[in-house]
Design brief:
The protein has helices at 4-12, 45-48, 58-71, 90-99, 116-124, 139-146, 151-170, 185-198, 217-224, 247-251, 282-286, 289-299, 309-313, and strands at residues 28-31, 75-77, 104-109, 129-133, 175-181, 204-208, 252-255, 260-262, 273-276. It is α/β, with parallel strands linked by helices and 317 residues long. Helix 8 (185-198) links the parallel strand 5 and strand 6 (204-208).
């Protein structure tokens, strides 16, 4: 799996051994070093003040990483809801994960804080993949959606180009990627022009559908005036998965900054908490009673009455 597309498709695929309520360790886990973010996007909990702000304790990070690696987790994402480039010890987190044997460590960023020093630091620490989330077509749209100064839009483009230069000059192994939401009409044409500008500095770019973000996309849609969000998280646009059973509940772990194991990749309000990893081991949490009940509902393809109801079926009022 040399491309990010292949890795994403591997995680979102649902083989037989994972179509149960008690299952093996997930192939991939995302861990929230911080829940803080300097952006205030309309579809995100940060604008709605639903998310508790805080940073993960580094000693807890090391403890849970060792537990996950011993349990068989292969890929570690050092991000979740927040912006990890706000964390002073991001490079240390990457270095530790590589030291204890994670074959693949990856990070997604909004790109605004990925300056030359920080980018070089994470590459030197052994980061395997750095992906930029790139979803607005011009500085003014960016400012409206993200709540940032328009000038930051061009800063992000510069940071992508500088990351490529730093990697080539330093001989680092870090792959550089970007993803963008695939809208229609003029928005897509404008986004395509922007993607064409940064693609020479990337190993791969891929498109995403407009996701529901755990039923948080309504406000974002109003801001953008774009298409209606798809339900659930189908993965890449070119290889979309059905909304049920949701692969995230079976194939990828998500850990909040305060040590809770969530069932949702978009958990913006701790509504999908399955276990407290401050109190139980990773595998105890991964196969907790709460997780088993939610998986059973997804396998039956009926999530009415669960935390997933709004995401899968949409608003009912």
């Amino acid at each position: 799996m040399n491309t990010i597309s292949a890795r994403i498709d591997n995680v979102t695929e649902m083989p037989k051994e994972y179509r149960n309520t008690i299952i093996p360790a997930p192939h991939s886990v995302k861990i929230e070093l911080t829940s803080k973010c300097n952006f205030s996007c309309g579809f995100c909990s940060h604008r709605r003040n639903l998310k508790k702000y805080g940073d993960m304790d580094f000693e807890f990070y090391k403890k849970i990483c060792k537990d996950m690696r011993d349990s068989g987790v292969e890929e570690l994402g050092v991000f979740y809801i927040g912006e990890s480039f706000m964390v002073p010890w991001l490079a240390d987190a990457i270095r530790y994960a590589k030291e204890i044997g994670f074959p693949y460590v990856f990070c997604t960023t909004n790109g605004s804080l990925a300056n030359e020093k920080k980018t070089k630091d994470v590459m030197e620490a052994g980061l395997d993949s750095l992906k930029f989330s790139f979803n607005n077509s011009d500085p003014f749209q960016f400012s409206k959606v993200a709540g940032m100064a328009p000038s930051v839009f061009n800063l992000i483009k510069d940071n992508i180009k500088n990351a490529y230069r730093i990697r080539e000059e330093g001989g680092y192994k870090t792959k550089l990627y970007a993803s963008s939401i695939r809208y229609t009409g003029d928005q897509h044409r404008q986004m395509q022009a922007l993607v064409n500008e940064v693609t020479p500095f990337l190993d791969e770019h891929y498109w995403l559908p407009l996701l529901s973000f755990g039923d948080q996309a309504i406000e974002g849609e109003e801001i953008l005036g774009m298409d209606k969000a798809v339900r659930g998280n189908p993965g890449r646009l070119d290889n979309m998965r059905p909304p049920m059973p949701c692969w995230a509940i079976f194939k990828e772990g998500h850990i909040t900054h305060d040590g809770f194991l969530s069932a949702c990749c978009f958990d913006s309000s701790n509504s999908w908490i399955m276990a407290d990893l401050n109190k139980v081991s990773f595998m105890e949490g991964w196969n907790s009673e709460a997780f088993q009940k939610l998986r059973e509902a997804h396998l039956k393809e009926d999530v009415h009455g669960t935390a997933c109801e709004g995401c899968i079926y949409g608003h009912t009022n």
